[in-house]
Amino acid sequence: MNRKNIFTGKVAWITGASSGIGEALVYEFVERGAKVIISSNDPSGLERVKKAAGSKSGMIICAPFDLSDTSGIEKLVEQQINSTGKIDYLLNIGGISQRSKIDETPIWLDRKIFEINFFGTIALSKAVLPYMINKKSGHILATSSISGRFGFPLRSAYSASKQALHGFFETLFLENKANNIRTSVIIPGRVSTNISLHALDSKGKEFGKMDGVLAKGMPPGKAAKTIIRGIIKNKREILVGRGEMIMLYIRRIWPWLFFRIADKVKSA
Prior knowledge:
The protein has 268 residues and is an alpha/beta fold. The protein has one domain: NAD(P)-binding Rossmann-like Domain (Rossmann fold). The chain is built from nine helices and seven strands, in the order βαβαβαβαβαβααβαα. It has a seven-stranded parallel sheet with strand order 3-2-1-4-5-6-7, sandwiched between helices. Helix 5 links the parallel strand 5 and strand 6. Helix 8 (246-253) packs across helix 9 (255-262). The longest helix has 29 residues, at 107-135. The radius of gyration is 18 Å and the shape is globular.
């Protein structure tokens, strides 16, 4: 089989699909012949993405839902299975960031960030997993962050919620390797998306500012292509970024140097 055509006839479900990396991935999958279920908490944004796919729009199904409320997730998954017959790829791209100091962040806000980034992601994954097990095939991806591998100022709950995903999805893979279920954790560095605009401040309001380093980051389209290559190569971790990714290696090999650098990095 031509590895470039492994997505033909497959079904991919992408959360966070109304903008950024999620949106770019939608176009990549449909161009490769996959049917795509797209989700986010922005129904009009999903319709815009579907329309933007042009002649491929018929391959897209809009299924809006909010990661902060997964009470109806089993029913939603059942509906999509009934519609498409299967889910081959689940890409958990949706999430929310943070811009607030620990001593200024109320515990309810920590819980909210975890509810979206961690519990929302694993709720959807756990609802889809039985169908993949039954089919003895599937690939589930979760989106972490470069700060999902180490702490970073103003990102305490965000960093912690992303670090938690690594433990969960590594375990999911080990438990289901015999079921032919693959998992990957996507680790973006600086990608030019609106994540900082929608990040939550200490009051739970949108930060509303574009981080300067993100504005100069990797374009979402290029990030999506990197992720696609990682899926084809069945990578356990898919690194998405540029020079900033060296921090992952510095943190692991020279922790003292990491803390010296991180202390000088502008955090917002």
